[in-house]
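@here heads up, posting the sequence + SMILES for the adenosine-5'-triphosphate run so it's all in one place. Ping me if the SMILES looks off, I pulled it from an old spreadsheet.
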Amino acid sequence: MSNENNIKIDVSELNLWYGDNHALHNITVPLYENKITALIGPSGCGKSTFLRCLNRMNDLISTVKIDGAVVIDNKNVYDKDVDEVSVRKRVGMVFQQPNPFPKSIYDNVAYAPLKHHQVRKGKECDELVEKSLRDAGLWEEVKDKLHEPGTSLSGGQQQRLCIARTIAVKPEIILMDEPTSALDPISTEKIEALMLELKKKYTIITVTHNMQQAARVADYTAFFHLGKLIEYDETETIFVNPSNKKTEDYITGRFG
Ligand SMILES: Nc1ncnc2c1ncn2[C@@H]1O[C@H](COP(=O)(O)OP(=O)(O)OP(=O)(O)O)[C@@H](O)[C@H]1O
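bot reply: prediction finished. Complex structure tokens:
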């Protein structure tokens, strides 16, 4: 694997237990800046669990125990002096089901930046809302109805609204957990095109069950099986010339 890229998230010897269930085993992986990394593997192999470790979302589950390190820009986000809210601001997340707040399109985007005092109400906030919606590829479709409910949009538009809401707080990393699995093919295509645009500014880690999607958008792909990272490499290598038999069996549809 080429090493010309900057490491944005350096995960080392990460283990996670849900009670007695050892769900992630000693995961060590460098995730690269301004790249899209796809996490693939059969259901229950730990993809979402791993993704949620990157912004400390698993801290919200009381039975979880984690050890190991997730180092972002030279600082382990699990160090005692790190506040998890600040981690979640730097590492945004987009979920499988579009989940806009029960608020207007405008307020969905403006809510967090206003709450965190990143912008003032009025012109400054208006500009941020417009920029975020533009960057999420949604502005032209919603600019005349910003005060209508976010839930009045189509599923694909709602997902782009959720992406606009995520980028409005200026994260450095965006985690996506099967961001297109609830969408039709045309909306999926728009989100994939958007991901390729967004990686110029952000580091993206995405979970997908869709092999074609991983092949289309991801620079790097990590294959998980039973809580272990089996293989991680440039996407083309994973799909064309995997070195592990399990990877080959999975991508050729022999299991999963
Ligand atoms: N909140 C939770 N509490 C307890 N166990 C959990 C929880 N979430 C996941 N697990 C367990 O952790 C393991 C990994 O699950 P995870 O959801 O990370 O897998 P996944 O690869 O994302 O699966 P899928 O593709 O089906 O979404 C499974 O054994 C699952 O049952």
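MO: The chain has one domain: 7-251.
MO: One more: The mean pLDDT is 95.
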